Amino acid sequence: MIDLLRSEQIKLRTVVMHWVLAVIALAFPLVITLLTSFFNGDDDGWSARSLVEVLTGTSFLSVLLIAVIAAASVTGEFGFGTIRPTFTATPRRSRVVIAKAIVLVVLALEIQITVVVVGWFAGSAIAEGRGATMNLSTVEAGTNALGGTVILAALMAVVGLGLGLLVRSTPAAVAALILWPLLVENLLGGLLSLIFDSSGLAAWMPFRAGFTMATLDPFDGPSRLVAGLYFAGVAAALLAVGTWSVNRRDA
Question: What's the predicted TM-score (pTM) here?
Answer without folding.
Answer: 0.89
